[in-house]
Amino acid sequence: MHSVSVAGVVVREDGRLLAIRRADNGTWELPGGVLELDETPEAGVAREVLEETGIHVEVDELTGVYKNTTRGIVALVFRCKPSGGTERTSSESTAVSWLTPDEVSERMAEVYAIRLLDALDGNGPHVRSHDGKQLIPAG
């Protein structure tokens, strides 16, 4: 059984990227979550980003599809523009920060950092699989 999640790569005008530190495990990740049955992927991204960070976004385009083969989660990642709101944490996050691409690479596990880097390269959508720890070669 697969579940579908959505995440937003929110890019500010200065090139910084919106990230959250998860309350449950302390890792830095993109804001996102499980897509509800009755909502479009774009609406789900906007809802999740707002819920987790306080930032309103305009959803631009799909930049990647990522499958976690261990947990059976397919994540759809969209590049977004911030359109208002104020940064705040939620029950799911202990920090909300605008990070540089370098800080993203330092703080995030490779399987999550690649989602941001993919969204920035303009060559998407990318399709990748991982086992929760490392990327699995296509094929």
Characterise this structure:
The chain is of the alpha+beta class and about 140 residues long. The strands form 2 sheets. The chain has a 6-stranded mixed β-sheet with strand order 4-1-6-5-8-9, sandwiched between helices. Strands 3-2-7 form a 3-stranded antiparallel β-sheet. Strand 8 and strand 9 form a beta hairpin. Helix 2 runs antiparallel to helix 3. The radius of gyration is 14 Å and the shape is globular. The model has no long low-confidence stretch (mean pLDDT about 95).
In short:
A hairpin with a 4-residue loop joins strand 8 (126-130) and strand 9 (135-136). The chain has helices at residues 41-53, 101-107, 110-120; strands at residues 3-10, 17-22, 28-29, 32-34, 55-68, 73-85, 93-99, 126-130, 135-136.
Please, how many helices? 3
> What is the total tally of β strands?
9
- Report the sheet with the most strands, covering strand number, pairing sense and barrel closure: 6 strands, mixed
- Tell me roughly what share of residues is in helical segments: 10-25%
* Termini gap: 22 Å
What is the 3D shape? globular
Poorly predicted runs of 5 or more residues: none
Into which percentage range does the β-strand content fall?
35-45%
**Biggest sheet, spatial arrangement of strands:** 4-1-6-5-8-9
The overall pLDDT average reads 94
Structural class call reads alpha+beta
Radius of gyration: 14 Å
Reading the helices and strands in chain order gives EEEEHEEEHHEE
